[in-house]
């Protein structure tokens, strides 16, 4: 099931994405009653997907990022794979949606894309045992962990490098029925392939990351875990269009603009 968050005529709602161009005249949203973090009903009210504005699929209380979780990415930046996961936060104000602009920060001259699988938490949890980790997941979406690489190199805390406004595009929706263990993940810039990997290359799995994070903190419905990026990260410039595509989920596209 693909669950999208969207706005139409000034109203915000969730809906299940259904249909395709071949058989239904184009995809549409079946608006749901309530929200996807509890039992919900479909209203039967349908809206064409191309008539709405897709929003970030969730509004997380916190986004927890994982660094150096793909060996080749760690290597390309001159780092070793760490003994324990490298964790960092991106604030809620960094989150932006599909089609929304990425505003190039004025304090950086080297901004990079990082295509990532994002885990969306479905219920409040802490100290989750590995065998039950799947029970706390609502689903998965595409993410771009946009990073001011020059700032990351000179500041030991990554708060500014990875937490600036619009540095966390998410979308286009949450896919609830996909196995995250071996999915193709790709990033293109202006149609040119930059990153191509598989989630099976991750040092630590989704289950491992949920266990590690919830040992320390409570996760809330809508919180997001960024699982790391494969090799091939590189620069973004004003005017670029960057797209993250994950097998079985969809494509997240954003354009880079000058920060106003």
Walk me through what this model shows.
Keywords: Metal-binding. This protein is mainly beta and 260 residues long. It folds into two domains: 2-54, SH3 type barrels; 63-258, Fumarylacetoacetase-like, C-terminal domain (Fumarylacetoacetate hydrolase, domain 2). Helix content is 12%, strand content 42%. The protein is built from five helices and 20 strands. It has helices at 21-24, 71-76, 149-154, 159-163, 206-214; strands at residues 2-8, 11-18, 28-33, 41-48, 53-54, 63-67, 86-90, 95-96, 102-104, 111-113, 115-121, 137-144, 147-148, 168-175, 184-189, 192-198, 224-226, 234-236, 241-246, 250-258. Strands 1, 2, 3, 4, 5, 6, 7, 8, 11, 12, 14 and 17 form a twelve-stranded mixed sheet that branches. A five-stranded mixed sheet has the order 9-20-19-15-16, with no helix packed on it. The longest helix is centred in the last third of the chain and has 9 residues, at 206-214. The radius of gyration is 18 Å and the shape is globular.
